[in-house]
Design a protein that fits this description.
2 strands; 397 residues; 2 domains; 4% strand; binds heme C; elongated; two-stranded antiparallel ribbon
């Protein structure tokens, strides 16, 4: 019963996380696009301190937007702020992390094939990465490197490589990917909380007090906001990656994670340039080619020899094998305490069900070793091979 309500809590939180995430990333896309698309305003607007204007049509109406070089002489009564999208995305994400990966550490985070961590160790490592990543980023941003775009991109990529390698040497593939996502998300929310909002507060307070406006506030906030914009596509990939074991359950998962982060941040660059009127399709083409090349390199080799172990196992033996390694979770009524229904809607209790799901079974238990989850039942290489052979011969017919 308890697990059942936890499932609902998880559903509601995940829902909330996606909704607030859309609002946050949507605002990031919109405002970066807006900034890059501003055009020279007419003289009278420039004289009022406006630096750029933009006209748009949406939802049946025409909009006229202007951006001030520093700020208006007097503040309007209503000024809209954008911060709760960021905070609520981060908060719901962290609660989900605790609920799924820390409460369920034995199922989702700790993989004894990778590192035999205790629950406490795993959680302490996880939190240290999230906090440590943020501190390191802040440290980097306090140096002169921050003003040099390519240099900061290089430093961040290098840090992501180290983090990706370290995380995948400690945690299950899923756990490692999600932790890198949480590190990036924390940096992004931190940028909003520590830099963007305080700079805007300073700007607004100065306008109210009729003081001289310092362009440095805006510039600092703008830079962090641009960083956040480049983080959006990588973090979105990480959010959906948990459905794709060919990425996180691969032996070289840390390199795959790094490659997809680089490819997606690069793709974002195409859009940011395009909004500024620079059309460079080679960037997008490179991203597509790189993704295709990655998919090609990762293609599973299906060299399942005919002979070993004793070449064909019977349907009865396969049912026994699946029963031993999968059915605790993959049953209409799982005996595993973490589940109240078959995960992914996949029950594997009868030979008919096993045959029906055989392609998926091969993907997760033979091509990658993603299932059983963190190899909780110690499925051996021979057993995987026998299962692969059986699928090759029997289930496909
Ligand atoms: C400890 C519980 C557990 C065990 C044991 C387990 N699984 Fe799973 N399995 C899961 C969970 C949880 C998911 C859903 C993962 C998700 O949400 O992406 C899943 C998903 C799957 C999927 C769907 C994957 C996808 O990409 O949609 C397949 C196929 C699968 N398991 C096969 C197996 C096979 C075959 C075994 C035994 C060799 C096995 N599982 C053992 C928990 C388990």
């Amino acid at each position: 019963m308890e697990t059942y309500f936890l499932d609902w809590l998880e559903l509601v939180l995940r829902w909330l996380h996606v909704i607030t995430g859309i609002a946050w990333i949507g605002a990031s896309f919109y405002f970066v696009w807006l900034d890059n698309s501003l055009e020279e305003p007419p003289r009278w607007k420039i004289d009022n301190g406006v630096k750029g204007e933009l006209w748009a049509v949406h939802g049946g109406g025409i909009y006229e937007v202007g951006k001030y070089r520093l700020g208006p002489a007097k503040l309007p009564e209503t000024l809209h702020w954008f911060k709760w999208e960021a905070y609520s995305t981060w908060l719901s994400g962290m609660v989900l992390m605790v609920l799924i990966f820390y409460v369920g550490a034995d199922t989702y985070l700790i993989d004894p094939r990778i590192a035999e961590l205790s629950r406490i160790e795993a959680i302490v490592f996880g939190i240290s990465f999230i906090v440590g990543g943020w501190l390191l980023y802040e440290l980097l941003c306090s140096t002169a490197i921050v003003t040099n775009g390519p240099a900061i991109a290089l430093c961040l990529t290098f840090s992501a490589a180290v983090a990706s390698w370290a995380l995948t040497s400690l945690f299950s593939g899923r756990g490692a990917f999600i932790h890198l996502g949480a590190m990036i998300g924390t940096i992004m929310a931190g940028n909003v909380f520590r830099v963007i909002i305080p700079s805007q507060r300073a700007l607004v307070a100065a306008i109210e007090a009729g003081k001289e406006l310092d362009p440095a506030w805006g510039a600092k906030a703008k830079l962090r906001s641009t960083h956040n914009n480049y983080f959006t596509l990588p973090i979105l990939f990480i959010m959906v990656s948990n459905h794709y074991p060919m990425t996180y359950a691969h032996t070289h998962n840390w390199l795959i994670l790094l490659a997809l982060i680089m490819i997606s941040a690069f793709a974002r660059h195409f859009f940011n340039l395009r909004h500024r009127g620079i059309f460079r399709p080679s960037i997008l083409v490179t991203s597509v080619i790189a993704t295709s090349a990655l998919a090609w390199v990762l293609m599973p080799v299906r060299a399942i020899p005919e002979t070993k172990p004793a070449n064909s196992i019977s349907d009865v033996e396969v049912t026994a094998l699946i029963s031993k390694h999968c059915v605790a979770c993959h049953a209409a009524q799982p005996s595993h305490p973490a589940f109240t229904s078959a995960p992914g809607g996949i029950a594997l209790e009868t030979i008919a069900q096993i045959k029906r799901w055989s392609t998926q079974i091969r993907a997760v238990a033979v091509d990658t070793e993603d299932m059983p989850m963190v190899n909780s039942t110690n499925m051996t290489a021979d057993e995987r091979q026998a299962l692969g052979q059986w699928i090759e011969k029997t289930a496909k017919r």
